[in-house]
Design goal:
With 339 residues, this protein is mostly helical. It is built from 13 helices and six strands. A two-stranded antiparallel ribbon has the order 1-2. A two-stranded antiparallel ribbon has the order 3-4. Strands 5-6 form a two-stranded antiparallel sheet. α9 crosses α10. It is elongated, with a radius of gyration of 29 Å. 26% of the residues are buried.
């Protein structure tokens, strides 16, 4: 091959590389540019657990980016970090890829806060303090306002996943959770509540006990049937450990102390505690709910499943074991709880 011919081949490949690079540069520039010059703002929500792929597809579907693949490449190789924050953001089609990514990696307008079922108010407030990143006097003021505003509402603040602004005050939080309870329980289950022989306070109190006593949705109606049957039968006490735990924690932990063990392991001495929440000493339901029940526990309290069972325990693996007699119950204790 002559030098002249080799030079032509080299020139050809250089030209191809240059044109390819020029094409890629134009393609990249186009696909990272704003979709539209319009300044109209759009609320964009990233749910917990969303992947970069899912976020890119959602941005594309909402007309906020030109190409979800380019979005993923940008996040992977050019962004300051690879993770997006969860929550609510304000975006616009006039924003380019860089601006969108920076916004999604910044502080959200509103933050997701998930309140699990079965928490008492003193635990619930800590979830908000941690998720809303409150500290110092701000955290202490939030705790105090939350517990004062929610006094008498144990069990009536609905456990759910919420969006709140980072600077949300405790009053806003309590009001929103109370409204959610009204919408999902009082209105959502209105017919069942009206048909029940029990009042709303009794239903929610029982549901809160079921929430702490049962572990799965399948066992909740059976546990509800046992507990209601014990209450309705003369000479029986409800004897639910969860109510005793609530009583013990109330006695040992001041209301505003936030680092207590609110669901302690019980001892024999605890059985004698003088409290109306001690269902081993006092008959009927305790004075108030002991936690925030979810819908499955509330529905179980409204629709208890009749059975011949009077007793139950959870074994060391968490599986429930029912018994019809005290002898059978004691056998289960020896078989499943002692090693």
């Amino acid at each position: 091959m002559s030098i002249k011919k080799g030079g032509k081949i080299a020139l050809f490949f250089i030209t191809v590389a240059f044109l390819s690079g020029l094409f890629l540069f134009g393609w990249w520039r186009k696909n990272t540019s704003p979709v539209s010059p319009t300044q109209e703002e759009t609320v964009f929500i990233i749910t917990k657990g969303s992947s970069t792929y899912q976020i890119g597809e959602k941005l594309y579907e909402k007309g906020l980016i030109r190409n979800p693949f380019v979005f993923r490449v940008y996040v992977r190789f050019l962004a300051s970090q690879n993770n997006m924050n969860f929550g609510e953001f304000i975006l616009s089609p006039s924003m380019n890829i860089s601006e969108i990514v920076n916004t999604l990696q910044g502080k959200p307008v509103e933050i997701w806060v998930t309140i699990p079922e079965g928490l008492r108010l003193t635990q619930m407030v800590e979830v908000f303090v941690n998720n809303l990143k409150k500290s110092g006097d701000d955290a202490e003021n939030f705790r105090r306002e939350f517990l004062e505003k929610s006094r008498g509402r144990e069990g009536f603040l609905f456990p759910d996943t919420y969006l709140f602004p980072p600077d949300a005050g405790a009053s806003l939080v309590v009001d929103k959770m109370s409204l959610t309870f009204e919408l999902k329980v009082i209105r959502g289950l209105e017919d069942e509540i009206n048909e029940s022989p029990y009042g709303l306070d009794e239903i929610i109190t029982m549901a809160s006990i079921i929430e702490r006593e049962a572990k799965t949705n399948e066992e909740r109606p059976l546990v509800a049937g046992i507990l209601w049957k014990r209450i309705e039968t003369p000479g029986w006490l409800m004897q639910a450990d969860a109510t005793l735990q609530y009583a013990v924690a109330n006695a040992k932990c001041p209301q505003y102390k936030h680092d207590c063990n609110w669901w302690p392991i019980l001892t024999k001495e605890d059985m004698g505690i003088d409290s109306y929440y001690n269902s081993y000493k006092h008959d009927g339901l305790p004075p108030t709910p002991i936690a925030s029940p979810g819908l499955s526990s509330i529905k179980a309290a409204l629709n208890p499943q009749p059975s011949d069972y009077w007793f139950y325990i959870h074994d060391l693996e968490g599986k429930i074991r029912f018994a019809k007699t005290l002898d059978e119950h004691n056998t289960n204790i020896g078989k499943y709880l002692r090693r």
